[in-house]
Structures are given as structure tokens and as C-alpha cells.
From TrEMBL:
The gene is GNB1L. The keyword Nucleus does not apply. It comes from the Eukaryota. WD repeats lie at residues 191-214, 215-256, 302-343. Gene3D superfamilies: YVTN repeat-like/Quinoprotein amine dehydrogenase. It comes from Patagioenas fasciata monilis. This is Guanine nucleotide-binding protein subunit beta-like protein 1. Keywords: Repeat, WD repeat.
């Protein structure tokens, strides 16, 4: 949706009243289930827009979105599933996380494909790490720790430990399942939202290492969450037939805002588009669902995949009309969708 344009979510609804669109194109060639996706499309011309994908066979593919082909295949996780890929300040520095219990930093500049550093997580789960840029060349990274209920926060690239977040004795939160580092502004202290195995979402203060608030959002483990810091509102999904929307008040207490009943159970991934207009969910029912973020109005069901959709990601093209949605599935395909109103 174009910024500054009068086009609104209602225009999207009108457009979606037609039969749901087909993918703009489909990327094939991973030879394994696709577990994670990350775009890097914000560069200046002649930079080629890129999509990174991580697969169950341990490969990271670098997709050229102009040719729809693989520019490079990265092999750094001992053929163990890759379930998180993120760039660090541009497409030349990549972070990846795999079931080999390693988080790798890659140098991809000038055609290189080398791992420059790595962190051994000692965690056997599949909780994706979370990155937050805190200064030029400095990042915080939150990851599930060796102790099953703990989260460790490191500074990168130094790998200095910032804190370890430990639930109170007897809390019985279980394993952290999903993490989201965020801060209100560059001068605000960084905070962490964590979804746990018992269905709780917890807000952590990294300075004190203490939990500020805890809210039971689901009866089952929290599979994915995202948060809109401007509206102080977040959303989470689990293996149940419900999306939970929650808010954060000025006292930093989490409160249930509303819930939304789903047709079919099971959400693998949730992401709010950067312009905060819509969100996408990845479903165990093979479908991608699009909602308006303001009122959680269902806008579209994108039905293409033949197996569980594991991940969804919005592109960061500078021109809003070029922006895309990508979805990766157990069926080894990546579908690419254009769901923006045209002018």
C-alpha cells in the first residue's frame, strides 16, 4: 500500500473480494522443506533484490528476485535444518541459526561465502534468535540458552554476554519458543518479548534481568509472535484455533486486547508488515492468511501450498508498490505474492 495514498485497507478488501490471487512467481530448487525467509531489497540500483531462505537440509539459498534463480548456496550447518536467517546492516553480512546448535555470521561481500564467526547455543530447541540494532555496527541478539527455560542476550559482534533471563523459581514457563527484541526509540532501553511453552508471553527488562509482566495468551505453546511498538500491541499464535492480540499499557503490563478464532488450528509464523497496515500468518493448514492489523479483519486466504507453511516474510523494497510477501513451506516451494493496491 502506498504511503501517503488515500488507498486504505478497505481498498484491499474490495480487491480481495475477487478470487484470491495466484502467486506472482514461485521459487523451486531448495530440495527440502523451507523453514525461514528474509528479504534484502532496500539497496540502491543497480543492487539486485535478494531473498534468503533456510532449509531442512542445512542449506541457505540466496535468491535473485530478478532472475528468480539461486545466486549462491551456503552450507555452514552440517546439513542440519536452518530455521533462522537475518541480515545485519545490509545483504553482505548474514546471520543464520541451525539445528546444529550454531548461530553463524557470514561474509557475503564481493562474492564471498565464508563463515566469519559463530556462537554455540547449546540449545536443542527450535526457538529463532532475535536481533536488534542498538548502534552503528552493534547489535543485541537474544537466544534460547542451555538451561531449558532461560534466554541469553549477547552483544554482537563482540559476543559479550549482556544478561541471562531466568524465570522465577516455580514459574514453570517451560522452554522459550519465540523471541522479539525491541525498543521504543534509539534512546529507550531495549526490552524482550518471549513466548513460552506454557502459552505465556513475558516482557523482560534487559537492564535488570527481571520480568516486567507476564500474560497467559494460549493454552498451548506460543509458536510465533510479533509486536508493533508504535501501537504497543502484539499478536501471537499457537497450535490452537486462535490468534491472541495483546497490548502493553504505560505501566508496561501486558493485557489481552482481543482474540480471533481461526478456521483451522496451527500457526507456524506471524509477521506484521513494516507499514503496520496488514499482517500475514503461516498455517499448518497449508494456507497463508492476510489480516488488517487495526481491527484484525480477514482480508485474504492465499491457497497455493500443499503442505504446512512454515514461514512468512514481507520485503523491504523502498518503493511500496514493489513490495512482496514470501511464504516457505514443507512442500519445498517458496511462493511470492504481490498484495499491494496498484495506483
Amino acid at each position: 500500500m502506498l504511503e501517503g495514498d488515500v488507498a486504505s485497507v478497505s481498498d484491499v478488501i474490495a480487491r480481495m473480494a475477487l478470487p484470491p490471487p495466484d502467486p506472482q512467481f514461485v521459487l523451486r530448487g531448495t530440495s527440502a522443506a523451507v523453514h525461514t525467509l528474509h528479504f534484502s531489497c532496500g539497496g540502491q540500483e543497480p543492487d539486485v533484490p535478494i531473498l534468503f531462505s533456510g532449509s531442512e537440509n542445512g542449506f541457505i539459498h540466496v535468491w535473485n528476485l530478478k532472475t528468480h534463480r539461486v545466486d549462491a548456496a551456503l552450507d555452514g550447518h552440517g546439513r542440519k535444518s536452518v530455521y533462522c536467517v537475518q541480515t545485519m546492516g545490509g545483504k553482505d553480512t548474514l546471520l543464520s541459526q541451525g539445528r546444529d546448535q550454531r548461530i553463524c555470521m557470514w561474509d557475503l561481500a564481493e562474492g564471498r561465502t565464508s563463515v566469519t564467526d559463530s556462537v554455540f547455543t547449546e540449545n536443542v530447541g527450535f526457538c529463532r534468535c532475535s536481533l536488534l540494532k542498538v548502534a552503528q555496527g552493534r547489535w543485541l541478539m537474544a537466544m534460547a540458552a542451555k538451561a531449558t527455560d532461560e534466554v541469553q542476550v549477547l552483544e554482537l559482534p563482540s559476543k559479550t554476554s549482556v544478561c541471562t533471563l531466568k524465570p522465577e523459581v516455580g514459574a514453570k514457563l517451560g522452554m522459550p519458543m519465540c523471541l522479539k527484541l525491541w525498543q521504543l526509540s534509539c534512546r529507550s532501553p531495549p526490552l524482550l518479548l518471549a513466548g513460552y511453552e506454557d502459552g505465556s508471553v513475558v516482557l523482560w527488562n534487559l537492564s535488570t534481568g527481571k520480568a516486567l509482566s507476564q500474560l497467559v495468551c494460549h493454552q498451548e505453546p506460543v509458536m510465533s509472535l510479533d509486536f508493533d511498538s508504535e501501537k504497543a500491541k502484539g499478536i501471537s499464535g499457537s497450535s490452537e484455533k486462535v490468534l491472541s492480540i495483546w497490548s502493553l499499557n504505560e505501566q508496561q503490563n501486558l493485557q489481552v486486547y482481543k482474540t480471533h478464532k481461526l478456521v483451522n488450528a496451527g500457526i507456524s509464523d506471524i509477521t506484521i508488515r513494516p507499514d503496520k497496515k496488514i499482517l500475514a500468518t503461516a498455517g499448518w493448514d497449508h494456507r497463508i492468511r492476510i489480516f488488517g492489523w487495526k481491527k484484525l479483519k480477514p482480508l485474504a486466504v492465499l491457497d497455493y501450498h500443499t503442505a504446512t507453511v512454515h514461514c512468512v516474510s514481507f520485503s523491504d523494497h523502498k518503493n511500496p508498490s514493489e513490495r512482496l510477501l514470501a511464504a516457505g513451506s514443507k512442500d519445498q516451494r517458496i511462493s511470492i505474492w504481490s498484495i499491494y493496491t496498484q495506483t
